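User: Hi! I'm working on a homework problem where we have to compare a predicted structure to a textbook description. Could you give me the structure for the chain below?
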Amino acid sequence: MQGAWSPRDQVQSPGRMSTLGRSSVILLTYVLAAIELTCLFMQFSVLPYLSRKLGLDSIAFGYLQTTFGVLQLLGGPVFGRFADQRGARAALTLSFLAALALYLLLAAASSPALPGLYLLFASRLPGALMHTLPAAQMVITDLSAPEERPAALGRLGLCFGVGVILGSLLGGTLVSAYGIQCPPILAALATLLGAVLSFTCIPASTKGTKTDTQTPPPGSPRASVFDLKAIASLLRLPDVPRIFLVKVASNFPTGLFMVMFSIISMDFFQLEAAQAGYLMSFFGLLQMVTQGLVIGQLSSRFSEEALLRASVLAFIVVGLAMAWMSNVFHFCLLVPGLVFSLCTLNVVTDSMLTKAVSTSDTGAMLGLCASVQPLLRTLGPTVGGFLYRSFGVPIFGHVQVAINVLVLLVLWRKPMPQRKDKVR
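Assistant: Happy to help. Predicted structure tokens:
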């Protein structure tokens, strides 16, 4: 992460890099991402059991997940544009404050004295502004040289792995030991700490002093954060539509499975809360190793095009194995391939997409990238629930094979462009 650095990055204007040095800002960003992801996975481990306690069936639980997915889908691109315009400090602080509101509402929903069902659905509303990971990706993108970017973004996988491991273990353990209200309260305290650190230690902006955007004339209205036309225009830039389509299509089958995983772990694998937490911790450990160590090494030896093809090919192999999976041991055997595919695909496509836009638009582009998972969470409960009830777990493997074979054919017929960062 300490590689070659261009002269523009040495220019430090007031409020930009004066709070902390570049290395310290990057390190703190990783810490903040780990805090938020730990809290998020504590919530994920609690949510299905709290929903069942409040009387929600699988269909109503799907509506709950869809609500959160729609809000994040709508909020992601707007939040990314907000981060571009208002800076890293404002973006990270806003995200942590939204998370604080969500966990407080979730803690209130678990109280028998309050209308838990209404509060549970209300707790989804702040999710529109909970985008700590895209904000962290923007900081890493802005502060890392183009050739270092895949490895730097990959190291966020260490944070993701920490979040999955600690969040899943803490969520399941605290529910068993202290009740269902404990994890949301602990998450609220942690996100409050994250908001304070973001506001006091993160620089106002991490972007260079020169970008390829024109400064508006004095007295002209400032560009709106809600300018959806400007956000959508990024998807019309050269090569962006194809890369983005590959990202969405390859993620879609696995996204359906992961959205339904909490139900599958209870019904198909017959796991208790603590056991499901251990399984997710195993998943997180593999993701931490893959993104933090493996992808960095691979990106220095192979092109992004080669890594992208390898991830899609691995998706096909994992899909074939998933179609024959019958118990949790089989799932544990295929998890390494699944994690490699997900991590490599997402890191490589994020890197390629941020290189296709200017520095001033990296936040908006990463916001669009972050909207892929909410899109899957929006469609997943309905589509995944229908597939699971109608055909069982093997259908997720069949769909994964079919879609990724088509994606692989597209990649081989017309290779992705190899590009450097867009001129700043």
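For your comparison, note the following. Residues 1-19, 209-220 have pLDDT under 50 and may be disordered. The radius of gyration is 21 Å. Good luck with the assignment!
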